[in-house]
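In response to reviewer comment 3 from the previous cycle, which asked for concrete evidence that the modeling workflow produces usable outputs, we include below a single protein chain processed end to end. The sequence was submitted unchanged, and the resulting structure tokens are shown without manual editing.
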Amino acid sequence: MERVAPPGTSGDRAGLGSLPRLPVRDQIARECVNIAYGFFSPLEGFMGLSDLDSVAREMTLESGYIWSIPILFDVSQDHLSVRGIGAGERVLLTYQDQPLATMDVREVFTYDLESLAQQVYGTTDSAHPGVERTYNYHDRFMSGPITLVNPPQINPPFDRFWKTPRQLRQEMEDLGWSRVVAHQTRNVPHAGHEWLMKGAWLAAEADGILVSAVIGEKKTGDYIDEAIVLAHDRLREAGFFRQDVHRTSTLLWDMRYAGPREAVFHALVRKNLGCTHHMFGRDHAGVGGYYDTYAAHKVFDELPDLGIKSVLTLEWWYCPTCAGVAYEGLCGHQEQKQDLAGTLIRSIIQGGVEPAPTTLRREVLEVVRDCAEKYGFGSPFVGEKYLANRTPVMSMPKLELNGEDTGCTCRDK
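The workflow returned the following structure tokens.
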């Protein structure tokens, strides 16, 4: 169920000007949107202590529903004290100095961060980006249901790819898709990704493939978001997938790199989008050497039926003997394999050499280079200039309530 105040109504907007205001950072804003539109169903708000403890220890909500990643609102006690916020209060959450959502605060609590890191990520090593995120939490967590009162505007080029779960389900129905396989990505697609999708489509006997591109926090060296989304859509536009079997969408999410736990989370979210299957390749949502290469495959053996089926695939590579892209489960020339590694693809993108279609489609390369000029300040990879000057994925419309300009001057330090 969506928790969004209808435009032009009073209802959830009545009296907002009198509520205590709490600015939120990008991650929390994105998660407010995901909660409100049902991407994180059955969550209706940020987790309380009992749900957090159950998810951390048992990978279920207190209700017993499988859930693998904590969805938390961290805040400092100083901010709560200054604004007079506590359990039982309704708070106006602001983003980009505009109202975003209300939160009915049910709990303010603490949790041992080292224990949380160990339970969720299987390590307390701060070199793990998810563990580092955990250690950077403020000293309190605040829980309670969220209602979106000022839906953000999604900016081009993402606006035509961002759809709510309700909209995606309707689009799938309109396309006649009853079996849909999801592809999680945060990369520009090379030939291995293309064949991963094609193989999963065949294995699932699917009607369609939904590319779900993760759009969230970026670090230097990542692909820019625009290149990821537009390059995936170009595969369909150029005919490498039929028009009626492939769609690109976006998910506003900051990767936790939690390996098998994040694989479960990805499956649950894509089920909410209307997908019936989810493909998982090697090292899904992993980082460094923290997880086994196929940990995301093994985790589903330990779980009950999630309502979405896993399509587990091995590695795709280029085989010079087979003279094409080959599958680990079929190709007998493993000693000759040429990995379609990120470093190889990046060298092609950065160089001036025309790629072989067995590594990277020329049409994809054209899109990536165009995005570099149009969005990336000359590079398809995130740099300091991109981080400082990029057009944000979402922007807040100015909202006046009862004649009051609700633009906020307070900022979270």
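The chain has a mean pLDDT of 91. We consider this sufficient to address the reviewer's concern, and the full set will be provided in the supplementary archive.
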